[in-house]
Amino acid sequence: MKKSLKKLLIGILSIGVIGTMTNSVDAAAKIPADAKLESASTIQLENLKLEKNWDKVFPQSNKVNHQKITFVNRYGITLAADMYTPKNYSGKLPALAVCGAFGVVKEQISGLYAQEMAERGFLTIAFDPSFTGESGGYPRFVASPDINTEDFQAAVDFLSTQPNVDADKIGIIGICGWAGLALNAAAIDTRIKATVTTTMYDMSRVIANGYFDYDKDAETLKRERMQNRINLNNQRTADYKAKKYARAGGVVEDPSEFPQFVKDYYDYYKTERGYHKRSLNSNGGWNVTSGLSFMNMPQLSYINEIENPVLIIHGENAHSRYFSETAFENMTGVKRSGFDTTAGNKELLIIPGATHCDLYDGGGKNAIPFDKIENFFKTNLRG
What we know:
16% strand; single chain
C-alpha cells in the first residue's frame, strides 16, 4: 500500500495533474504534444547586460582566468556569475559555487572567496542571487528561502554540465545569510558533496525572532511576530496602491548610536573597503516586504539529514555566532566545545578574536581560514 501511494505521488508530481486515474501512462504517451506547451518547458537564457570591466572591490588575480557566465534556475530566472579557472590546469577540475553575504553582489565577498579558491586549484563561480545584482528576476530586490535555495542548485546544474568539471566533485560555499541557504541546499541536493559556511545567519530565525531572539520569552516573541506580520502585510497593501515596492534601506548612514556590529557593517558596506554600486546593503536595501516569506518557512528543518561533509566557520567575537552553534548542534546533536568541535564528518570551527565582518574579507588580519577551507574540499571532493 505504501509503495502504491508513493508511486502515485511521484506520478502526480511528474505529470503535474491528477486527471483520471483510469488512463494508463502508455495511453497518455500517445497523446500528441502541444507545441506551445512543449516550448514553454524548455530552458531559455535571458539576455542579461553584464559589466565587461573589472569592477570588484578586490584586486584581480593574475593566477586565474576570469569570465562572465550565465545560467538558469528552475523558475526560469537567468543568473549572472563570475567564473574563475586556474591557469595551466589539466583534466577535469573540482568545482565550487559561492554566494553571499545577504544583500551583497558577486563583486564583493563571494567573488573574493571564489577567486582565492580558484588560485588553489578549483573551478569556481560566484553568482548574484535572483532579483539582485546582474542576475535577472522581477521585481527587483526580493529574497526568497525557496528561490534562493534553488539558486545554489541551479549553480550545481551549471557546474555539473561543464566539460572541464568533475561532476562528482562539486561543493558550495555560503556566506552570512547565504550560509543558511547553502545548508538548506545541501539538505536537498545530493549532488553537493561538501559544504562550507562562514559567518552564518539563519535568516528565517532572525527575521521571525529578531537579533538574539530578542532575549524574550516565547509568548512575547509570538506577539511581536504577529505585529511584524501585520506591519508587513499592511506594507503589501500600501505597495500595491502605490504601484511601487518600498525599500527598507541598506546599512545605516550614521551607525554611531547602534551596536558595534552595525558599525562593523558600515565599515565594510559604506566605505571604500567594500562599497559597490549594485550592492543592496551598500545602497537602498531590500524591498520592505522581502523578508515576509522567511518568517513562515524555517529553512534549516532538515539539516540533520545532510550526509555529506559540512564545515561551519564563525568568528569568536561575532554577534551572529549563535546561528552557527545552533545549526551545528541541530545537525549533529553535539554542543560546541572549544574553538574546534567535530562530530563525524561535520565540524564547527571558531576563529579566535574574529568578528562577523572579519570573515567577509579577512578584516585586515587574515581571519578567513583559506588553508582550512582548501584542505576540507580537497579531502572531501575525491569523487
